[in-house]
Amino acid sequence: HTHTHTQPVMEQQLRLWQLPRWQRRQVLLLGYSTGISVFTPAANLYQVCRVNGVQPSGREALRMCARIYPQQVLLRMAQVNFSSPVKDNFNAWGAFAVLGVLQGGVYGHANVTFARSMGIDGTCTRNVLLRAFRGSGVAAGRDMISQGVPFLFSKALVRDWIDPALGGPAASGTWDETARHYGAVLSLSALSTVISHGLHNVQMVMQTHQSMGYVDATKSLWRDHGMAALHKGAEARVGLLMITCIMNEVFLKPSWQDRD
Description:
Strand content: under 5%
Order of helices and strands: HHHHHHHHHHH
Helix content: over 70%
Number of helices: 11
Shape: globular
Number of strands: 0
Radius of gyration: 20 Å
Structural class: mainly alpha
Largest sheet: none
């Protein structure tokens, strides 16, 4: 039964790797973009509401998220396509910095749209895309931490800490090996997301309050939330970044490591 169940999956994988490299990459990036965009608008809306103290109805929240889903998929495709050449020609840290700036724009599209829809800030103009990239400086640092650390150090965590603690490496291709790998990815994801969340909140305030710069946004967060500004709404990002890191493993890493 297992052989019968896995054969179609193996055939689909074989067909994928028979495509030219550019087409393979686009299929993987489309899978990444359509999948992650199911979750990101809801996470963004939750964080905007937590920081700004507003609460739309469930129906209104669902409507706002569904309305921006197609644009979010297109923006996400553009984001990962622009960052892939950086990864090819430089290093993963640089790629995640670029990814952070671009991802900040994807988040910003949602944040500005939600802020305007809920009347959080009257200065949120209709030119959403131009406003979406505010706070790009902190966005680059945020994603170097939140995505770069799990992406680059999960193997070292397994090799240097998890394997010795469990009496040695797991056998190749076993569930034990898979569990250790994803355990490392998810634990590093949670830690690095919480560490970087203060930067995320600074950018979000800049996007939802268009008159604020870096300093004013930081002061506003501190005035309204104190030390809680470092983690306010982080629970949504922890969940989202765990999903993102899994999507990185399934779609993004194979596309970036793909060579003819």
